[in-house]
Write a structure and sequence with these properties.
The chain has helices spanning 2-5, 11-78. It is mainly α.
């Protein structure tokens, strides 16, 4: 029985098995490290997307305000109206 296993139990086979196991271990560790880096990148990109979406929403609000102001100015020009500053308007009851 030992005669059959002797080639398998030789030092050369043990060395090759050890090197193969080491290569598999290093490969799996590199995949694990790459996975962690990818997770960090995904988290960073999601945060960046969120901040860009908030910025886009603020820009849309500013655009709506500017469009309203533009329409008021256009209406005032077309009807020969003079726009007064809000602080100079007097309200009478």
């Amino acid at each position: 029985m030992i005669e059959i296993l002797r080639p398998v139990l030789s030092l050369r086979w043990a060395l090759w098995f050890f090197l193969f196991a080491l290569a598999v271990f290093l490969f799996s560790m590199s995949i694990s490290i790459f996975s962690v880096h990818t997770d960090h990148d995904v988290i960073r990109l999601r945060s960046e997307i969120g901040s860009l979406m908030r910025q886009e929403k603020l820009l849309e609000i500013q655009k709506a305000d500017l469009m309203t102001e533009s329409r008021v100015m256009s209406y005032a020009r077309s009807h020969h109206l003079v726009l007064a500053n809000p602080a100079s308007v007097i309200y009478l009851h």
